[in-house]
Amino acid sequence: MAVPTHAELTDHLVRQIDIRLVDPLEILLDDPLDDLRGRIHRRAATLATALLDGDDTAALHTAIRVYSSLHPGDAPFDPPVEWWRTPLGQLVAVRFGHPAAAGVSLPVAGAMLGISRQGVHDLVRRGKLDRHPDGGVTATSIRDRLRTQPAPPTTRS
User: pTM to 2 decimals?
Assistant: First the structure.
């Protein structure tokens, strides 16, 4: 799994902000909110830069702030499995592993790595990922594996 590009991350953030925040406001206000959408696109580009290029502490705070804004609630950071396959989830996995858990389940580990649960089990069995004492896989070993994997080849047309 590769770190998303700035454009991929910006587009993802714009879509998520639009779907989760602007569309409901547009319905309630009966207003197209075009000016707001332009501001959101510019802000999403700034957020993408902070997430991709900022120091670890600033990038982590930005990631958590974005996630919390898009998924409000009182529960601790525990995104659903499918979130880890999004550009923001991929970035968080590569940069931080799971920022709120020392160990994750096999399905979450698979989503973070972009492989099946069976693939994770095989990597644990072969000693390529560390099993967490409470079960599952250590988030640190997932992050370390993602950081050492070569980027997939790009196709040119």
Answer: 0.87
Angle at CA 63, nearest 5°, toward 111 and 112?
10
Closest CA to 112 of 136, 83, 71: 83
β-sheet bridge partners, residue 104: 137
CB count in 10 Å sphere of residue 53: 10
Amino acid identity of residue 140, one-letter, is: T
| CA pair distance 123, 21, nearest whole angstrom | 39
> Between the CA of residue 81 and those of 36, 90, 107, 114, 137, what are the distances in Å?
31, 12, 7, 11, 14
Percent of the chain scored above 70 by pLDDT? 94
- How far is the C-alpha of 31 from the C-alpha of 46, rounded, in Å? 26
Averaged pLDDT, 106-129: 95
